[in-house]
Specification:
It is a single chain. By secondary structure, the chain is mainly α. About 70% of the residues lie in helices and about 5% in strands. It contains nine helices and two strands. It has helices spanning about 5-15, 20-30, 40-55, 60-80, 85-100, 105-110, 115-130, 150-170, 175-195; strands at about 130-135, 140-145. A two-stranded antiparallel sheet has the order 1-2. α6 crosses α7. The longest helix has 23 residues, at about 60-80. It is globular.
Length: about 200
């Protein structure tokens, strides 16, 4: 029995990536299959390709996700540049919009996923420019409040971006939004669990 050209290509691909035992197993499955069962053999071949060739490489899905994620970050970076803000200043002001006046640096760190050092230095800089002010909270916690100048900054720099974000969401149906958020959360949780195994 002779292999077709397509099969020969697949076997060359497999032989460079699978162990010798696995290669012989797949070859045996293919050789004993007649035309009627060719699809079954090809399924096993595709299965081993998918499970072995991506073991130590990026799968197409991961590669595409990484590209989208990086492009997503770049979109925000370009938007903040247009508004004349640094990435950290934008993230902090954006956090305050959702958290409200009186939040703490710790609250902002958790919300924005920025480091304590980044949040601390950026807040100090904005306070020196009279965008933020501090008031004592519980214990040693200092609460952060927007000044009138800070509220004006939100009106000019942050709210326009939020408006465009909401408009972008309206390009999707409610079901598409729900599905996107559910899948994103599912992937985040799976990634957290997998990284714990490192």
């Amino acid at each position: 029995m002779y292999l077709t050209t397509k099969r020969q290509f697949i076997f060359i691909f497999l032989k460079n990536r699978l162990t010798y035992v696995r290669f012989r197993t797949i070859l045996f499955l293919s050789m004993i299959s007649d035309y009627k069962h060719e699809e079954v053999a090809m399924f096993f071949i595709a299965y081993f390709i998918m499970n072995k060739s991506f073991e130590n490489k990026m799968s197409p899905a991961l590669s595409m996700f990484n590209h989208i994620y990086k492009e997503f970050n770049e979109i925000y970076h370009e938007a903040t540049l247009k508004m004349g803000l640094s990435d950290s200043a934008f993230d902090i002001l954006y956090s305050i919009v959702d958290l409200g006046d009186g939040c703490s640096q710790s609250d902002i760190c958790k919300y924005s996923c920025l480091s304590k050092q980044t949040v601390n230095s950026s807040i100090k800089k904005m306070a020196s420019l009279n965008y933020l002010t501090f008031k004592p909270g519980k214990g040693r916690v200092m609460q952060i409040f927007l000044t009138d100048k800070g509220r004006q900054l939100l009106d000019e720099k942050i709210y326009p971006i939020i408006k465009k974000e909401n408009e972008a969401f309206l390009c999707m149906t409610d079901e598409e939004c729900r599905l996107m958020l559910e899948l994103y959360e599912k992937y985040n949780n799976a990634l957290k669990n997998k990284f714990k195994e490192l």
